[in-house]
Amino acid sequence: MTASRRILALSGGVGGAKLVLGLAHTMAPEDLTVVANTGDDFRHLGLHISPDIDTVVYTLSGLANPELGWGREGETWSFMAGLRQLGGEDWFNLGDGDLAMHVLRTNRLAEGASLSQVTRDLRRSLGIIVSILPMSDDPVQTVVETPDGPLAFQHYFVREQCAPIVTGFRFEHIEKAHPNPALMDALRDDTTGAVIIAPSNPFVSVDPILHLPGLRQTLDAFAGPILAVSPIVGGKAIKGPAAKMMRELGMPSDAAAVARHYSGLIDGFVIDRVDADQEDEIRKLGMDVMITGTVMRDLDSKIALAQDCLAFAERLAAP
Amino acid sequence: MTASRRILALSGGVGGAKLVLGLAHTMAPEDLTVVANTGDDFRHLGLHISPDIDTVVYTLSGLANPELGWGREGETWSFMAGLRQLGGEDWFNLGDGDLAMHVLRTNRLAEGASLSQVTRDLRRSLGIIVSILPMSDDPVQTVVETPDGPLAFQHYFVREQCAPIVTGFRFEHIEKAHPNPALMDALRDDTTGAVIIAPSNPFVSVDPILHLPGLRQTLDAFAGPILAVSPIVGGKAIKGPAAKMMRELGMPSDAAAVARHYSGLIDGFVIDRVDADQEDEIRKLGMDVMITGTVMRDLDSKIALAQDCLAFAERLAAP
B53 and B45 in contact (C-beta within 8 Å)? Predict the structure, then answer.
């Protein structure tokens, strides 16, 4: 792999966006393409909300709110106060500045633009050079199955705060969804050097991308290495319900179980030093392992992990 | 006219809303119905904005911004800042709290509710007892004719800040618009004691209402008195471009010219003391005249003018 090769990163929200920021500081940003999960997208109060795209956009533009893990830093909340006064649904918080994104996106989509076009124009307006591709321009809705019935993802994640027990997942309309053509082109193009699955939730952030019709076959045919970074460190998810989901689904909530989830697809798996004891178990799945620090607390640790991932990809690509 | 009789007020934005607030403090609010101009309504960034309804709603709920004359007091502006960052159209200011109104309205309309239903629910959620009726549930667009061509009202009013010379007005789609049925019912109902045309712009706030198909005939057949309050005091409009429009249309910019505009329709005209010298000229148009203080600087003066209007209506109704 030469330094000028393109990197494709598959990402959900916070964890994925952190690694993407590290990559953007490590390589030429014009050679980096992020494919963002849109299974979390939903319409709320008539607005089209794309949580993972927004987290990537805000993170790459330096506008992200590091405390919340979503939305913008220095946000105001007058819209929510007004909404409550008017008796509107208030379980999903929308910051005032953040609303500009949702209103503009919704309006552009209503005018006939694709989510890809809107995303490109919005990230460019914020000076982001990295390409951000919605996984598909077609609607896909992640549904969380629970003993009390199915829940739309944001109802599970935000309204119910991940409390319900998870028995499975469904990606509605995925059979009719076309993978983003730019993603398919990149996978078939020999200038793309590697695919990196970011440390995002395997079930609700990465699987919607992997389940797009034809994508798995195209990934299997991809010439370069595919690697993933474990979102589970020391048996816990850095953020979000991944570990809780794994327990509820009857798997161990550890890095090796994530590796097993991706086995057959990936060539290498990046785990944290605290999980070094799982190396052998993971290697037995037929993949290489890199052990490094994977907790991204600041920009330096994001860059360090990105450098490790790129070095690992280069090693995996070596003949 | 007995105290229990209903009053119908026809209103545009600021000036009309002030008199309506005075009326709401003077009579039983459940007997007051405000018919709001919707010719200024427009879609902006995909949101349905009803400026005159909102000004009436915010004024009656005590949320209005008295400095701006539109929107909410104590407003924040993060949405506009975000919009500018993203390259969105920023000529029309939308406050963050105010957005809750536009987003909820747009969403309800998209779900199939009528503007009347949405307006009723929104004003009730703010504890407003006064009925607020959009003049029509059908779209009507006020167009301002200028030597350089037609301008949509908000483009004239906000984007161009009323600078273009006005040569006339057009109310697009008005021939297909149905007057609000509740307005027609009230005019045909003998419990309605009087119609008061608030001190709003005659051309762009009141005329759209009066030009609704069938409305003028129904007003002509209305049994009670119809009176109007001059929006022009001492040759000037209290707020807005009414006087400038009158000059550009080749009329004197005075109270008498407004009376002439309404002659044949109204039974009485309320003018300010500073315009007392126009009393005879106005009486010659075939209407009664009340001279009082019409400048509404505070709640007391709003109530005083409302009391004067109700007394005038009672006098006009006396056999």
Answer: no
